[in-house]
Specification:
Largest sheet: 10 strands, mixed
Shape: elongated
Oligomer: single chain
Strand content: 35-45%
CATH architecture of the largest domain: Sandwich
Structural class: mainly beta
Helix content: under 10%
Radius of gyration: 24 Å
């Protein structure tokens, strides 16, 4: 959020529409990899009290924050306070009670920005907040994370951003070296009513080589290293959280005669859960046994990486042989997806395991006849060269009804 965001809206739209990455609905398949809560704030303090200093600190000043923002951030309870009803209130006001000076001259607005830097940070996991956002032209609320003080090299993950001229739309974005500012990689979700009319939950589930954004528990965007066009993935270290309400800036524009003040963002809770390094076996998972060889589809290696070629191996009941069909059409094991190499759909294309990326070529279905069909190719998973031994490779091939293309749940 915090650096130059000129033309970012256009960049987001381009990725959302042409990148094919937005899912309108998807089961919460990442839940198996999420552990217990590691940090939370329920904001149950007395009315008018500040935030817990053991959990939060303040950014203060009116520098414009790289975006030509107009507010001066304070640590006053006039801008950041608990409301006595279980909420944090961050309020932007049209005022200048102490002759604050901003980068453009005498400040016109005050607001608040709190962060967990030096208090709490974490690598991977679920980061979620329940928020009722403020409204109005030029108002820019955000729930986001930074990976350090060397932006953009240490990365930025924007869990929730909204701009007042798009009241129904939430934006989720990453920034890093080569994709900062207008080159941020992001998606969005638009609903049928202003987000500021009610509380909504905003979250990311973050694991190695994958970040997934959710609005009210429904996925709307995901990003993997493959989406960065060769730029560096910088999301494998600790990040801290930030909550703020900005006023004005290059992206949202500036308050006008329609903007009413004060504007308050209410936060019901912020919760962080661990990422479970052992994803276990997803719900509904089963082995897929060949009618030809009697062996099971298997993921090779103790710690498989993207690109591991699937093979046939003696059925052993391990998680590396447990496959779960998902509502988005993917077939998953170890929290990754069955995938045709290179996205090719031709005869002879090998079958691999990679991070799920929303590409429709990752859709596989087990038919009632026992064919494991790639939906996009309308071709079957086939044991190459009729090899019945351990280590036999898998490929796509025209469905022929032969036993080396027939599978049974085991």
């Amino acid at each position: 959020m915090r650096k130059a965001r000129i033309l970012l809206a256009a960049a987001v739209v381009a990725v959302t529409v042409s990148g094919g990455l937005v899912a309108t609905s998807r089961n919460d398949t990442a839940a198996a990899a999420i552990g217990g809560i590691t940090w939370s704030d329920e904001f149950n303090g007395a009315a008018g009290t500040s935030v817990d200093p053991a959990k939060w600190k303040f950014d203060i000043g009116g520098s414009g924050w790289g975006n030509n923002e107009q507010q001066y951030y304070t640590n006053s309870t006039n801008n950041v306070r608990q409301d006595g009803q279980g909420h944090l209130a961050i309020t932007a006001r049209r005022e200048n009670p102490a002759n604050y000076q901003c980068h453009y001259g005498t400040c016109q607005y005050t607001s608040g920005r709190i962060l967990t830097a030096d208090k709490f940070s974490q690598t991977y996991g679920r980061f979620e907040a329940s928020i009722k956002i403020p409204k109005g032209q030029g108002i820019w609320p955000a729930f986001w994370m930074l990976g350090g003080n060397s932006w953009p090299n240490t990365g930025e993950i924007d869990i929730m951003e909204n701009v007042g001229n798009a009241p129904n739309t939430v934006y989720g974005t990453v920034h890093g070296p080569g994709y900062s500012g207008a080159e941020g990689i992001g998606g969005n979700r638009t609903i049928g009513a202003p987000l500021g009319d009610a509380f909504h939950t905003y979250r990311v589930d973050w694991s190695p080589n994958l970040i997934v954004w959710y609005l009210d528990g429904t996925e709307y965007f995901r990003v993997t290293p493959s989406n960065l066009g060769g730029d560096q993935w910088v999301f494998d270290h600790n990040f801290f959280m930030i909550l703020n309400v900005a006023v004005g800036g290059y992206w949202p524009g500036y308050p006008d005669g329609t903007t009413q003040f004060p504007q308050t963002m209410l936060v019901d809770y912020v919760r962080v859960s661990a990422w479970n390094n052992d994803p276990g076996t997803p719900s509904g998972a089963t082995a897929l046994k060949s009618n030809f060889s009697g062996r099971c589809i298997d993921i090779p290696g103790a710690n498989p990486v993207d690109g591991a070629r699937l093979q046939m191996y003696d059925c052993n009941g391990s998680a590396a042989q447990k496959w779960a069909p998902q509502s988005d059409g993917t077939m998953r094991a170890l929290n990754k997806c069955m995938d045709p190499v290179g996205g090719a759909l031709t005869n002879g294309t090998p079958i691999q395991l990679v991070t799920c990326n929303g590409n429709p070529v990752q859709r596989f279905t087990l038919s009632a006849a026992g064919d494991l069909v790639n939906v996009s190719a309308n071709r079957c998973v086939d044991i190459k060269d009729w090899n019945s031994a351990n280590g036999a490779q898998l490929q796509l091939w025209d469905c022929g009804g032969t036993t080396n293309q027939k599978w049974t749940k085991a």
